[in-house]
Design goal:
The complex is a heterodimer of chains A (433) and B (451). Chain A has 15 helices and twelve strands. With 433 residues, chain A is α+β, with helices and mostly antiparallel strands. Chain B contains 16 helices and twelve strands. The termini of chain B are far apart. Chain B has 451 residues and is of the alpha+beta class. In chain B, helix 9 packs across helix 15 and helix 11 packs across helix 16. The chains are: A alpha+beta (433), B alpha+beta (451). The interface between A and B is large, with 84 and 86 residues.
Chain lengths: 433, 451
């Protein structure tokens, strides 16, 4: 059953891509901007800058005082925030219909004229706030270092996905006002941005408002973008062990996939779900319900654009189980999946769960707008929101097997092992194959 | 080359268009089950929420957690299906099924693409009415709860939340113990305890909420043929209990978590539930204190001092009774000044809120509501909460209307009801470094407990 969300697209003379997706179910509009800059664009010594910069976008711009962006929109019933990821930075608000113009005016002011208002004081304050965010999300939580360890194990030091979006404390300390100015001038430009309006707005009104508020923004001469360099799977297994104060050993089996929009990203993600993404998945049956050597199994795949994507499977090992035996079991099942593929029931369950998950993510205006901005900015594909479900349901078990055999083999695995212990030490060594 | 357009003037915001909260169509089925449906055009995933009255006070001292852990076993095997078969049956239909308990009731939640709703309701009925509690899965779920407690112990917000229950509510009462039990109570549970908890449930005062794009479905018949076949058994006359406050004045409990680079602060007092006639003032007060980066707490602790990523204040209603909680983490070396500043802000609020603050809070909450009510899952969740709390179906609309009439005096009166005997404070952090500064504040006695 194909989806048919109504979509209208346009490109302003300054290069801004605009998509309007009318939905008059409730009197609200989701305003969603994706800027084509993320932590993958950061240079050595300045990790965390894209995210720190995102915080500064709330600290005032030419005609907006510090904090006013939040204040003005929340005062009229807006819910808003921003996020930074490897590939992009996302600014969004869902506002009552009558406040859409205000949201666009505020966004245009900061996306066009942030530097008029950035101060050392704001930079220093938000640097402190971001450091507390890092402590809260990474440094002061069990397993907080799993993902940074995973990135560093899976990618070489010079790779754009080697470091987490949050960056390092040293690099956050090193960020200067000049860095902020350079960063804005290089990346914050209408021809590197997508604006999606999803909700109670007509195509005519939405496009007119986009022109009205964003039309005056300038795109300077295009900068030369470094083309992505395709990075294949690991050629031999790598392992990283961290002894940490964690309640249970956690094994994370990570893999490089091709970059989006290669169809293998979807297929490999589904293959990993067959192993560990569902309640009926193989490893859940075998290790969680069956032998009870594992407490939980999870599977994740992230499509990324810079030469590679990331997929991983994580297993929390029960206290009385042998971690090495669990590791061996998972690697054996990865190998078997690549050789034998999933059975029909597994294919059916995996597709059905992913379909429901996808439809749920389109239920709310803000998430639907986010999906549209994503595919428009990073895949130049406005209609992905409508076509993806058909692409998903057409995936076969054999395609999942092929993806597993090509990209999820044991010898292509970066294994990050966080094991219980009081003293923290770390080491990187090659696993005996 | 086009002429560069002019810079647009700051636009005015037009007043919100009238919006009515979706009120469910309600019918009562022969089994006693109440059915509440919301037809939401375009919502492709249907949400089903079942609310079954239950009181945790029945679990018995030393056996806390039996209700919640029983709910975790509803989809681990039922009549005609092994746990594996049932998991597969659910997932082949694209169903996600979850369940949990609070004081007042058990909830069972299901989401599924609308076209698969008929099959989904039949599977849900099996889970609700005929779970088999296989012994190997019972032991696993009990063991997983013990592991979950270890995870909670290592996470400052979770450990803090547990200590807050133990500190805020009277010793020996059910509210002072986590819903899913402690390591001692869970270790004492048997399969028979869980089976008995399930037997105590029945459809008599239960409610099923179904929302989504339902236009092409006869939902009443589908529910009658599935969940409606669950026969009346027990479950009548459940009276949820309000928690009893520990009382005894202000105190600080420090949960020692060596090596913490941040301290988790939880500042709390008993508060109202949503049946309170002045309820509308409490969400507004919470928002003005700690609901945004510009709210009083974050304006100082985050945007001025840079001590925190953000703190939140919230009124947390239970089915009966509730609490008012401010929580968040701060840099370890400013724990004491941050707590002191936070308590000063809460005290200062007794001097009142400005009219501008009142308007901003009321406008945020009332005008943000329509967009929140756009999806089947939120509408179902909100409606199920009304059933759980015994509130009228149009309660959210009425609350919004009450909010629009609030005065600054109403906010002051509401705030004067919070923490008249002082705040209960839980801090999770490195006692070696923060104990002395906390004691130095001279606010209240500091008790240190291990993580």
């Amino acid at each position: 059953m194909p989806l048919d969300y109504e979509l209208h697209e346009d490109r302003l003379p300054n290069g801004l891509r605009v998509v309007v997706a009318p939905d008059h179910g409730v009197p609200a509009v989701a305003v969603n901007l994706w800027v084509g800059v993320g932590s993958r664009h950061e240079i050595l010594g300045r990790t965390g800058l894209a995210h720190l910069f995102e915080h500064l976008m709330f600290q005032g711009s030419r005609s907006v005082r510090s904090g006013e962006h939040f204040e003005a929109l929340m005062a009229v019933g807006g819910r808003l925030n921003a996020t930074t990821w490897f590939d992009r930075t996302n600014y969004f608000e869902t506002v009552p219909t009558g406040a859409m113009d205000l949201a666009l005016w505020l966004e245009a002011d900061r996306h066009g004229h942030l530097l008029d208002a950035v101060t050392q004081e704001n930079l220093d304050n938000q640097r402190d706030v971001v450091k507390e965010e890092k402590r809260q999300r990474y440094d002061n939580v069990p397993y907080g270092e799993v993902l940074p360890d995973l990135y560093a194990t899976l990618f070489p030091v010079t790779h754009p996905y080697h470091h987490p979006t949050i960056g390092s404390m040293e690099d956050l300390d090193a960020a200067t006002l000049e860095d902020v100015h350079d960063f804005f001038r290089q990346w914050y430009r209408p021809d590197n941005t997508v604006l999606t309006l999803c909700g109670d707005v007509t195509p005519q009104a939405g496009m007119a408002a986009a022109h009205r508020y964003f039309g005056e923004l300038l795109s300077p001469e295009p900068t030369v973008h470094r083309p992505p360099i395709a990075l294949g799977p690991l050629s031999e297994p790598v392992r990283f062990v961290r002894v940490a104060d964690v309640p249970h050993d956690r094994l994370t089996f990570a893999f490089r996939l091709p970059a989006d929009p290669d169809p293998v990203v979807l297929r490999a993600g589904l293959a990993l779900d067959v192993l560990g993404g569902l309640s009926s998945s193989r490893l859940v049956r075998q290790l969680v319900r069956g032998s009870q050597e594992a407490l939980a199994v999870n599977a994740t795949a992230w499509g990324l654009v810079d030469g590679a994507s990331i997929a991983f499977l994580s297993v929390d090992v029960a206290s009385d189980a042998e971690t090495a035996a669990v590791e061996h079991h998972v690697l054996t099942e990865l190998d078997r999946l690549g050789r034998e593929g999933p059975v029909d029931d597994e294919v059916e369950a995996t597709l059905a769960q992913n379909e429901r998950g996808w439809l749920s993510s389109l239920a709310a205006l803000d998430e639907r707008a986010d999906v549209i901005s994503h595919s428009t900015l990073l895949q130049d594909d406005v209609s992905f929101v409508n076509t993806h479900v058909d692409e998903l349901l057409a995936v076969t078990g054999e395609q999942m097997r092929e993806a597993a055999a090509s990209f999820l083999r044991p010898e292509q695995c970066a294994l990050v092992s966080h094991v219980r212990g009081q003293t923290e030490k770390e080491g990187l060594d090659d696993r005996a194959s | 080359m086009t002429v560069r357009p002019e810079v647009a003037q700051r636009p005015e915001v037009s007043p919100p268009v009238p919006w009515r909260q979706p009120v469910p169509v309600v019918t009562r089925l022969a089994s006693g089950l109440t059915l509440a449906t919301h037809d939401l055009p375009g919502q492709q995933v249907a949400s089903v929420r079942m609310v079954i009255p239950a009181t945790l006070a029945d679990e018995g001292a030393g056996r806390e957690g039996s209700t919640e852990l029983m709910t975790r076993l509803l989809d681990e095997g039922c009549r005609g299906h092994s746990p594996e078969e049932f998991a597969l049956a659910l997932e082949r239909q694209g169903i996600v099924l979850g369940a949990g308990a609070v004081e007042g009731g058990v909830s069972v939640d299901l989401d599924v693409p609308v076209r698969r709703l008929p099959d989904a309701l039949e599977l849900m009925a099996l889970a609700v009415a005929e779970p088999t509690f296989p012994p190997d899965q019972v032991s696993r779920i009990l063991r997983n709860r013990l592991a979950e407690i270890e995870h909670e112990n290592s996470s400052a917000p979770h450990r803090g939340a547990r200590e807050l229950l133990r500190t805020l509510w009277a010793p020996g009462t059910r509210a002072a113990v986590p819903t899913a039990g402690t390591s001692e109570s869970v270790a004492a549970l048997t399969r028979e305890d869980l089976v008995a908890r399930h037997r105590s449930l029945g459809p008599a005062d239960a409610t099923v909420v179904v929302s989504g794009h339902l236009a092409d479905l006869d939902v009443r018949r589908l529910v009658e043929d599935s969940l409606g076949t669950w026969l009346p058994g027990a479950g009548e006359g459940v009276e949820p209990a309000a928690p009893q406050a520990a009382g005894g004045g202000p105190r600080i409990v420090l949960v020692d978590r060596p090596g913490s680079v941040q301290s988790e602060l939880l500042v709390a007092a008993p508060g109202p539930d949503r049946t309170d006639e002045h309820w509308a003032a409490f969400p507004v007060t919470a928002y003005l204190l700690g609901g945004s980066p510009n709210a009083r707490i974050d304006a100082l602790l985050r945007e001025d001092k840079g001590w925190t990523y953000g703190m939140r204040a919230s009124a947390r209603p239970r089915v009966r009774g509730g609490s008012f909680v401010v929580s968040g983490s701060v840099r370890a070396d400013v724990t004491a000044p941050a707590l002191s500043a936070l308590l000063d802000i809460l005290e200062e609020a007794h001097s009142g809120f400005s009219t501008a603050e009142l308007v901003s809070g009321v406008d945020f909450i009332t005008r943000a509501t329509p967009a929140r009510w756009a999806t089947a899952d939120v509408v179902a969740d909100e409606t199920a909460a009304l059933a759980m709390e015994g509130l009228p179906w149009d309660f959210p609309q009425r609350t919004m209307e009450s909010m629009l009439l609030l005065t600054v005096e109403d906010l002051m009166r509401a705030w004067s009801r919070i923490a008249p005997e002082g705040w209960t404070v839980v801090v999770v952090g490195d006692a070696d470094t923060i104990r002395a500064p906390l004691e130095g504040l001279g606010l209240a006695p500091v008790t240190v407990v291990p993580a």
